Amino acid sequence: MVKLFATVFTFVALLSATAQAAAILKARGPGPVDCRDDLGAQALGNTADAVTCINQLAAQGSAPCTANQLSNILCQQGNTAITILNNQLNAQGGNDAGDTAFTCNDVAQAAGHILDICTRNDGTVRGSTLGFDNPNVTVDIRGL
Questions:
Q1: What pairing do the DSSP bridges indicate for beta strands 127-130 and 33-34?
Q2: DSSP three-state, residue 86
């Protein structure tokens, strides 16, 4: 009986730890994704090119990928670009850089989230999302 209680207790503890970890990951995840259907077909990027860019950004790991101007193209492959936008500069007319500290790995993860939601059946993609827990930054994938 004691062994059964210990097993049940361990199982409940594991479930609780898993739920806590999932909540932390969800809280740190990127914001909602907008597939930017308001843009025309010219804004569609190539999915394979976007994947190449995501891999290049992820390989940079914790290196800074900041938006120290209105927008920075962080990677361009073919006609597809991953851009980081500084929302504070957009809102303040260029007067406040805000907190745009962001790692290249964070950008890669946010771009991967866009890819997961916005990839189309024809092998194209476009979309944007707020950066992880930083509302000052938008990550954008689109064709040039």
A1: antiparallel
A2: strand
pTM comes to 0.73
Residue 56 DSSP class: H
Which tens digit of pLDDT belongs to each residue from 75-130? 999 999 999 888 766 555 544 555 566 789 989 999 999 999 999 999 999 999 98
Strands 45-46 and 124-125: antiparallel
Angle at 104 between CA 30 and CA 46, to 5 degrees: 75
Residue with tokens 């503890």: 13
What's the rounded Cα separation, in Å, for the pair 17 and 142? 38
Beta bridge partners of 77: 80
Q: Report the length, in residues, of the chain.
A: 144
Per-residue exposure over 102-124, b if at least 16 CB sit within 10 Å of its own CB, e if not:
bbbbbbbbbbbbbbeebbeeeeb
Contacts of 83 (CB under 8 A, 6+ apart): 71, 72, 73, 74, 139, 140, 141, 142
